[in-house]
Amino acid sequence: MQCDYNELKMNVLLVEPEYSQAKRTKHEAKLCPVGLYKHYFFHISKGDKVCLVRGCVTPKIKPDMIKITSLFTYWSKDVFKAIEFYSKTYPNAIIKVGGIFASLMPEVIRENNSDVVVHPGIDKEVEYVSIDWKHLKRNIQILHASRGCIRRCKFCGVRKIEPRITYKTWKQLKKEIQLNDIVFFDNNFLMNPNHKDILEGIDNHRVNDKVIRCESQSGFDPRLLTQEDAILLKKARFKNIRISWDHNLKQKKVVRRALSYL
Ligand code: SF4
User: Fold this and answer.
1) How far apart are alpha carbons 194 and 196 in whole angstroms?
2) I need a surface site. Which of 31, 98, 177, 202 has the fewest CB within 10 A?
3) Which of 152, 153, 160, 242 to mutate to test the pocket of ligand 1 (most atoms within 8 A of CB)?
4) Where do transmembrane segments lie in this chain (predicted)?
């Protein structure tokens, strides 16, 4: 539980549901509630009293507003559990639900919880709020160098969650880097026309006189990966590099080519 008590304005409780299947997830960073962290620093900057919790707990504040995040649709049970718990415990609080599940299936949440405000998609109010990763005592920083995706895979929810494609430059990204270990949450890192600059920048950048190590939450698009990209990814100290093989065997040739570069 992380609480900050600034000038009293509004009591805001930020909730990450306790995902019962989370322990089975290999990559802890995948579960990092980046959006919720942005809300945390947004409310602190407004002078609100903010409390960030995981699961169904009794916080140190009596919340006026409760914001619950959500993740994969197949973990929705834990989100409903959190909604039910906080609705019953704080019937007068405004409850908002956002995140991936809320973006993909807002009607499912609304159907069962008419008093809850569902917020699908990226919240523009907090999108550009800076997260202080040291304050959160995290040793891995999550970054986005781009949003959206240039592909339109039928099974993928990215076009619903991040319909607008945006790119950052190395100059913009450099200002955001706070830690030595970074996980990129980009859906398709290589689609960014600035990705070569970014990789070269990371290679030469230092935080506390130490190099940066990177990982990508998503696999790399084999249709975009070039020999030069493979070299730059290694120079930028990307570990656990994976190829995203999203389609059928017709992609075999292009996947094989990408693997040969790596
Ligand atoms: S390439 Fe990946 S992120 Fe992009 S639409 Fe396809 S599955 Fe989604």
Assistant:
1) 6
2) 31
3) 153
4) none
Name which residue sits closest to atom 3 of ligand 1, judged by CA.
187
Overall number of domains in the chain: 2
Give 3-state DSSP helix, strand, coil % of the chain, rounded to 5.
35, 20, 45
Measured CA distances, 194 to 190, 201, 237 (Å): 9, 11, 18
Ligand 1, residue 157: give the atom nearest the CA: 8
Q: Which residue has the higher pLDDT, 3 or 144?
A: 144
- Does 42 map to a domain? yes
Tokens in use for 55?
């699961």
**CA 160 to ligand 1 centroid distance, Å:** 11
Q: Which atom of ligand 1 is nearest to the CA of 155?
A: 7
Question: Using an 8 Å Cβ cutoff, are 246 and 224 in contact?
Answer: no
